Amino acid sequence: MKLTYYGHSSFGVEIKGRKIVFDPFITHNELARSIDVNRIEADYIFVSHGHGDHISDLVTLAARTGAKVVGAFELTEWVAKQGVSNVHPMNTGGKWQFDFGTVKCVVAHHSGGLPDGSYGGNPMGFLFMTGEGNFYYSGDTALTFDMELIPRWAKLDFAMLPIGDNFTMGVDDAIIAAEFIECNRIVGMHYDTFGYIKIDKEEASRKFTAAGLTLLLPAIGETISL
Ligand code: NI
Ligand code: MN
What we know:
This protein has six helices and 14 strands. The protein is an alpha/beta fold. The strands form two sheets. Strands 6-5-4-3-2-1-14 form a seven-stranded mixed beta sheet, with helices on one face. Strands 7-8-9-10-11-12-13 form a seven-stranded mixed beta sheet. The termini are close together. Bound molecules: nickel (II) ion (NI) and manganese (II) ion. Manganese (II) ion binds near residues 51 and 190.
């Protein structure tokens, strides 16, 4: 599976020819100046929660591409109010079979208000189970014992976990999370974008390696095969 990093917690993956984008926050990410959001293609946009650093390009990207927006019920209701009608509401614990594979919504311990003060529903992570591989996109979350459930549902090929600390897990908790989810290939996200979450990347990689894990930190705009 090919995965492209758009900075912060935003990625693109392609599964069965379907282009899937996560948490688009590009225009307002100073580190992602090299990415032209107007050239990103999407058939689906998965949104973990309503914070600005996960949705700032959501409405414009969905409107231009016609992509289906998948997220918590209240979040998709809000998106629909912005004029985007192609939405799929879900909620924690539920799964759905899409044309590229099955996605299960899992617990994320975080908050989820929208920038205009609207209630955005529960924050969520997504577990993707597809013929081309399985992965977990945790969204913004603390380390939680709920993660121990994930190996019951899927054997993971890789996972995207936050490592920036302050608002989410940091490196040390992400290493414990990797053990909980029984996955040794972790793609780091939610780091370096703003002052509160700047990290020492070399130290982070050293800690993962010492724990017998691989931390992948693709450059913004880089595509890697997993
Ligand atoms: Ni957040
Ligand atoms: Mn965030």
